[in-house]
Every structure is written in structure tokens, then in C-alpha cells.
Structure prediction request, 215 residues.
Amino acid sequence: MAATKVHGSPLSGATQRVLACLYEKEVEFQFVPVDMKAGEHKSEKFLCLNPFGQVPAFEDGDLKLFESRAVTQYIAHEYANKGTQLLAPGSNKTMAVVHLWNEAEAHQFNSPSSTLVWELFFKPLFGMTTDTAVVEENEAKLAKVLDVYETRLAQSKYLACDHFTLADLHHLPNIQCLLGSPVKKLFDSRPHVSAWVADITARPAWSKVLSMQKQ
Prediction:
């Protein structure tokens, strides 16, 4: 049995982020499904792993972590010599650029994109009504973020540098959901963003994550 465990749901974007990282790094792990409909993520047993009662929770031997971006940082550093190089080793300056775009994803891209995923993907899934005003407001916010990305990606194949890093990987869950919605036009209308999206969503590691939703 693998010492590395991911407790989560294949539909959870945060869980997907961790799974994509593990597949990129070719780290063996055990996936432990959490039945969120049954409230397992609020159970006493799960709260010992993540006291906030959210997925995912992560174990690597005696180490227990939560918060998906913290988990991917750990994996990328702990298993730096395995699989895909998801960092930008070298000078502090190159690492700073990776951190910058990690922060841009977390603080600029994530909020409008997550709101749109909720309104356009999860609300219909749960039989709830989409709020069109909220959608319009967050489409406008996301468009401004993608304008910045378009400028950046005209200069660099990926956000942080010329190879795929955590800064790109962290975007995958929300992008994947939004590609199946009218928001896709925001990606398609920006040629460098469109090429980047096509590239990162075609990665074999990400395909493995998506296949877990069908199991």
C-alpha cells in the first residue's frame, strides 16, 4: 500500500490539482474517495486530517497536509528528481517568477474563475438556478485577467518560463470546467491563451485525472 494518500473527490478542483501534480511527478499514491454527499468531509475522522472539513487531505508517511497549493508545493520539492520538473531551479530570480505566477493564479484568476465554475457547472449539476448577473460580472473580471495572460504568453510559452510548472498546473481544474461553458470564448479569443490552454489540458497527467471522474 502506498505511503502517499489523497483523500478527496474526483469532482473537486482542489483534489484534481493535487492528483495532477502526483501524476506529473510519477509518485505512487492511494486515492481515498470521500463521499461528500454523505458528509464524510465533516466527520470526526476526516477532520483529523483537515480541520476545515474540505477536500483534499494529503498524507505522506507521517506528514499530514491540506490546502491543495501547499500540497503541490511539497510534492514538487520533495520529489524534485522524479517525473516532470514543476519548479524553475536555478537563481532566486527564476524561482521568484514561478512564485509570482502561482500568486497570480491564486489571487487574480481563481476568484472569478471559481465563481463561474460554481454558477455554470455546479449549480446546474445540483438543480440550482444560475445567476446571470454574477456570471456577467465575473466574465468581465476574468477577461481582464486573461488580457494580462495574453501579454505574458506572447513572451513565454508558459506563464513562469519556457517549461510547464506549478504556475500552469494550478489553473487546470477551473479551465477544464469552463471549456464546457460559454466562457470558453474568453480563452478562444486570445490566441496565446488559447494555445496555452490547448497545451496544458492535453498533458497525459491531466488526462489521467479526468479519467478518474469516469470510474
About this structure: The longest strand covers residues 4-8. The chain has a mean pLDDT of 95. The radius of gyration is 17 Å.
